[in-house]
Write a structure and sequence with these properties.
By secondary structure, the chain is α/β, with parallel strands linked by helices. 42% of the residues lie in helices and 19% in strands. The longest helix is centred in the C-terminal third of the chain and has 31 residues, at 233-263. The structure holds 5'-O-[(R)-(carboxyoxy)(hydroxy)phosphoryl]adenosine (KG4) and zinc ion.
């Protein structure tokens, strides 16, 4: 079975084609991506209306690219999958509209995918896919969650952020240091030249006794520190970036280890844009090696949003019998959609 996947929830347009295989993990045949980062950079963040318009321009050429690269033709596609939510409403509507139009034209069923499930299952696109069950640390621009994952569609929330997400903490701190958008990669690049112990920043909820996170206070502490530095900020920026990154990563790693201890699981999967962070990878790898726990990441270029993870999640849901694709083209999207409500669609 061939599944075409379309991602358009935020600032990347992604299209991919995967093929299911009996008794095995689906295989990625091709994927294509267009990032809108350059377009939004002028505004210091994502402009939703511009995002939607750009998805419209990009999605079909990307689909053609994917088909050409995989040597397939559109009528060979068996199911058309798209990101149904969460995300920007207008942006989601582009992917959903195009997917349902393709489905109707080809007389093929469609399937709406949860964006976070896409991230969660993205490590299955790597050469060394994980096995169930595992702990998942989901760290994106909008979400920070620890989950116990028993299988496709069987997700138990262990803890999550009560305010900002980890990616947001990177982005907002970077913004107030004048590092532009997206902040995560910029801040972590600058941090390489700084001293992570230069500033004492809070590690919110580190000892809260549960698996919840809070990053809003950290952002305020970074702002206070930046103001205190005044004219010296420019000279100390790398130190402040390094200290900020160290605080965020410290909390993510410690809480992940607590989740592993509490669940007794011996495997952890890290997914979402912040999973590209090299310090997070290095610290988690080191800690897990000491404990004999396996860590799985998506390939670096599939950490941030892409179509491959949407096609993959759709294929895995279909293969596991969790969901059936439907000949129903009256699409709706879900800009807000908790992952644990995925079956109540
Ligand atoms: O998963 P994603 O592409 O989009 C959402 O679904 O939100 O995640 C984007 C987030 C942004 O906050 C971005 O700053 C962050 O991931 N990010 C990083 C890195 N690369 C992306 N944060 C820290 N270090 C990175 N290398
Ligand atoms: Zn995402």
């Amino acid at each position: 079975m061939l599944v075409l996947g379309i991602e358009s929830s935020c600032d990347e347009t992604g299209v991919a084609l995967v093929r299911t295989q009996s008794g095995g993990v689906p295989v990625l045949l091709a994927h294509a991506l267009h990032s809108q980062i350059e377009m939004h950079q002028a505004y210091g963040g994502v402009v939703p209306e511009l995002a939607s318009r750009d998805h419209i321009r990009r999605v079909l050429p990307l689909a053609e690219e994917v088909l050409a690269e995989s040597g397939r033709r559109l009528p060979e596609v068996d199911v058309v999958a798209y990101t149904r939510g969460p995300g920007l409403a207008g942006a989601l509507l582009v992917g959903a509209g195009v997917a349902c139009a393709l489905g109707a034209a080809l007389n093929r069923p469609v399937l709406g995918v949860h964006h976070l499930e896409g991230h969660l299952l993205s490590p299955f696109l790597s050469a060394d896919p994980p096995e169930f069950p595992f702990v998942a640390l989901l760290v994106s621009g909008g979400h920070t969650q620890l989950m116990r994952v028993e299988g496709v569609g069987r997700y138990e929330l262990l803890g999550e952020t009560i305010d900002d997400a980890a990616g947001e903490a990177f982005d907002k701190s970077a913004k107030l240091m004048g590092l532009g958008y997206p902040g995560g990669p910029a801040l972590s690049r600058l941090a390489q030249q700084g001293d992570p112990a230069a500033f004492k920043l809070p590690r919110p909820l580190l000892h809260s006794g549960n698996l919840d996170f809070s990053f809003a206070g950290l952002k305020t502490a970074v702002l206070t520190q930046a103001r205190k530095l005044g004219d010296d900020l420019e000279a100390r920026k790398a130190d402040l970036a390094a200290s900020t990154q160290a605080a965020i990563v410290d909390v993510l790693v410690k809480k992940s280890l607590t989740a592993l201890r509490e669940t007794g699981l011996r495997r952890i999967v890290v997914a979402g844009g912040v999973g590209a962070n090299q310090l997070l990878r290095a610290q988690l790898d080191a800690a897990c090696a000491r404990l004999g726990v396996r860590v799985h990441y998506p390939e670096l270029h599939l950490c941030t949003d892409n179509g491959a993870m949407i096609a993959m999640a759709a294929a895995m849901r279909l293969q596991s019998g969790q969901q059936q694709a439907r000949f129903d083209y009256a699409f709706d999207v879900k800009p807000r959609w908790p992952l644990n409500a995925i079956d109540g669609a």
